[in-house]
What does this fold into?
Amino acid sequence: MPTIKIDGREIPFEKDDTIIRAAHRAGIDIPHYCWHPGLSVAANCRMCLVEVGPPPGRPPMELDILRWDAEKHDYVPVKKPKLQPACQMTCTPGMEVLSESSPHVAEARSAVQELLLLNHPVDCPICDQAGECRLQDYWLEHQRKGKRMQQEVVHKPKAVVFGPTIVYDAERCIVCTRCVRVCEEIAKDPVLSIRERGNLGEVVVAPGRQLDNNYTLMTEHVCPVGALTSSDFRFKARVWFLRNARAVCQGCATGCNAFLDYDPRNNTPYRYRPRENLAVNKYWMCDEGMLSYKRAVEGRLLSALVGGDDSVIADALVAAKDQLKNHRDDTSKIAVVLSAQHSNEDNFALYTLAKTYLGAKDFYVSGRPLGPGDDILMSPDKNPNTRGVIQIAGESAPRPIAELIDAMGKGKYAFAIALGSDLEVDEGEARAALSKLKGLVTIATHDGPLVESAHIALPACSWAEVDGSYVNRQGIVQRSDKALRWRGDARPGWDLVGQLGRALGYATSWKSLADIHKAMPPGTYAMSPAGLMGMPSGDRPPGPLQPSGTIPAEKKPEALT
Ligand code: SF4
Ligand code: SF4
Ligand code: FES
It folds into this structure.
């Protein structure tokens, strides 16, 4: 593979790579604002300027400039290298690039920083981006001095509502056009553009429109400064108090990779951010998914229910044993409902209990009903693990819940054990059919029709409270990591299944996730995903400066995990 040298370090590059892309792949951070690996090249911020040596046999490209000579007390003509934008310049074999090691580059970066901050309101303490702002980071890394301009700054519109999800502050905007390109290139909705030039430039929404497509939150996500804020997150948390866990979005079958940012002090999730995975979601997530972190805590089932009344798990298990006491009489009378909302671990536990111990033959799958999809990321299947259930149940081929309701209406089953709370069928019809059962035990994270109809309900941890594996629509098994502490009486779903099995007299001996993984077939669970941690925008390689609020999991103090 051909190579270039950056500050003397030889790195390979691929066809059509720009210097910054090759550097990014090699983990070398060249400072940048407008460049993003998932967007086209705009080359307008000039923060990525580097010194490029001339091709063999060619003279260096130089500029004539005047430089202040303190001894002569006058400007004197000198030559300096013509710096090149690393985001735009294509690599050629043997190219010699100076980045950190060039005094000309250091001077240019400092000057770009000063220019960008000339009119910028330096009120970081009240800015929502503080702690994860590229201007702050680069000021510290490349400038470290005040601006020379003393005049009043140019004032521009503040707190402009772009749409239902985004608020814009033109004074903080560095006009990098990342947000404009996200709308054009990712959302395919060119609703943003730039008005005016120079220090009057600002982002505007097309006349008669709002910023209201399925990917509006990606504009805020790529904004390197505090100009775009999300209505949902703005001013709710300071990022240095937040920790992050590697999650898989539960919003649909695409299974986008995300960081779940949460505050360990109040055990509360605050936002999702996309986590780079080129095979699944690249650098992006949809709005519906971005806001779905709330479901980790909203609408939860937090205590056991016996006959609809609050109980404790131990009593509920005794009641479940009583409710299911005749289940051995005729195993064809048992229906088992797996859940496309639950992890492979939970589904495997229930499948094993049902198939191996109870002798059940009929399996169904519950989940949320179909919804809107698109040809970008969003799948109409609003469940994160439909393929996982099919994988776990294998030859038992779980059938749609509508067939269960139909069969129950005809009195086919006396008992049912269900995972999950959602049903993608008419709730009234489902309730009428479920009421014919002698015993329905439901293990669920949230309230819903399967919980409301259950004789006994057991509260399971949400995906954010346990490690779990999910299989996305492409068949990729992905791991979502625990972020939050268990809420209320909730316990991991697989653990509740194990406890239920033991209450019924079976040797469901798994007591830890490792026990479950040992029992699961290879390829049905995933260990913690490899990948970059703690990256605010998915576009900076890990460098010496770790962004605030994104402490890698391995560095978390024990007390905070
Ligand atoms: S709002 Fe943010 S992303 Fe958009 S042009 Fe301004 S600085 Fe760039
Ligand atoms: S496309 Fe699906 S998985 Fe991805 S963010 Fe949206 S809802 Fe979540
Ligand atoms: S990153 Fe903005 S000019 Fe290269």
